[in-house]
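== Polypeptide entry ==
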Amino acid sequence: MKFYSGFSLSNDKQLFSEFLRESEFNVAGFSYGAILAFKEVLYSDKRIDTLQLFSPAFFQDKPEKFKRTQKMYYSKDKKTYLQNFFKSCFLPANINEKVTLKEGSEEELSLLLDYKWKADELQVLKDKGLKIEVYLGSEDKIINVLKAKEFFLPFATTYLINSAGHALETKDTVLNSG
C-alpha cells in the first residue's frame, strides 16, 4: 500500500488506520496527498484495485483571490501560516501529537490550491473498474465538504463522517486515542 501525506505533514498515515486497505494494490492520500495519489493511479500501468482519498484538497470552488491570499500569507510568514493550517486540519478536535509538521514548498501549496479535479479523469478510472473511495469530515474547516461530496459522488463511494474535521478526527477520536 502506498500512502501520500498531506501538505507539510509527516506521520499522518496513522490517522486513517481504521479506513486504510493494507494491500499492495491500494494507493491512498490525505488532502494534498490525495492529489498525488490520484495522479499516480491515473498515469500508472501497474495493477491498482483501490484508490482512497482522505479529505482530498478541493479548492476549485474558491475564487482566485482566496488562492492568491493564501499564497501571499505563506510567502510572508511560513511558520505562522503552517501553524494555523495545522490547527485547522484537526478542528473540531485537538491536534494529534503523533502527526508532525514540516515545511512545505510554495510549489506544493500552489499545486494544492490550483489543482482542478476533472470528472473525465475520474470516469476513466471508474471505467477501468478501479474502486475509488472518498472520505470527508462534516466539520472540515479546510475545504467545502458539500461541494467536494457533490463532485466526487458520481465516481466514488463517498463517506461523510459526522462531527469530523479535515483530518477525520472528532473530539472523541483524540480523547480516546490514548
